[in-house]
Amino acid sequence: MNLKQAQYVKTIAECGSITAAAKKLFVSQPSLSQMLRQIEQEIGLPIFDRSTSPLRLTYAGEKYLYAAERILAANSELESQLKEIKQEHAGRLRLGISVTRAMQVMPLVLPIFVPMYPNVNLELTESGSATLEELLQSGSIDLALAALESTSTNLAYELIEKENVGILAGRDSATAKRFRSGKAISLTDTEGDSYVCLTKGHSSRVVQDKLFRRYGFAPHVLLETDSLEVGRRVAVEAGACMVLSDIYVDDYVHQHRGEFFKLKDYENYRHFYACYRKDEFIPMYIRDFIRITTRVLSQHRKFPD
User: Fold this and answer.
1) Nearest to 145 by CA among 263, 14, 297
2) pTM score > 0.85 for this model?
3) Residues 92-119: pLDDT tens digits?
4) Over the stretch 37-54, which tens digit does the pLDDT of each residue have?
5) 290-299: which pairs have CB atoms within 8 A and are 24 or more residues apart?
């Protein structure tokens, strides 16, 4: 059964005659009669009892009409959903973001975004920046909010927030005792202190490994963790160092004996971007999600305790 057959049989049943149905459907009576005969030949049963006036459905016709109405209703619902998607009021947003950034971004963005787009289904993937870029390239997510270098030619990057990478040091570390907080230091100035490292895949780990290779630096690793929050707390409390973005230097760091030092010999190119594929249509709700994120982060610079 196709949509035309379903609509024609439904109209004949409602009108009670082929002639009246043909007028309502703006088709000729002979062509409508021929189509009905073709349907009955295909199913091998009559749909209407032609000995009555108005026409009456046979038992097989009742079953056929029931299925026809379900098909037409499903098609109508699909058309409405597609219309909403075309108008960009409904859809699906597959968002990739790190756990740490999700803690910062989602509580601020969702209270604004959800009332604007209640019919957009949000699917969250939490992972490190390097993994998120791979997922975006493969089409597994629609939008990545991540600390990346804007180097891929098939991806579009919209800057949300600039990050300055430096060294977080607990006050019991030799580095914190030797230098004034906020001073620009070299990585080699931290020699002798232990380091807390994030696991591979995190943007901070990418920067850290690049710096370590540049200076042939191989410090003692106190802890390797997948959680930035665990890492920075351990570094502060245990008197260790950690390569970290300045966006995570907040009241917790200052109140718990942590110091942050700029890197005087490193220019960071990995900033916080909204990233999506250039060859994909970007609906308005994704653009608004990016816009809201950019705005709220500029208003809430500090990472939450």
Assistant:
1) 297
2) no
3) 999 999 888 998 899 999 999 999 999 9
4) 999 999 999 999 988 889
5) 290/143, 290/158, 290/160, 292/109, 292/112, 292/113, 293/105, 293/109, 293/145, 293/160, 294/158, 294/160, 294/161, 296/105, 296/108, 296/109, 296/112, 297/104, 297/105, 297/108, 297/160, 297/161, 297/272, 298/161
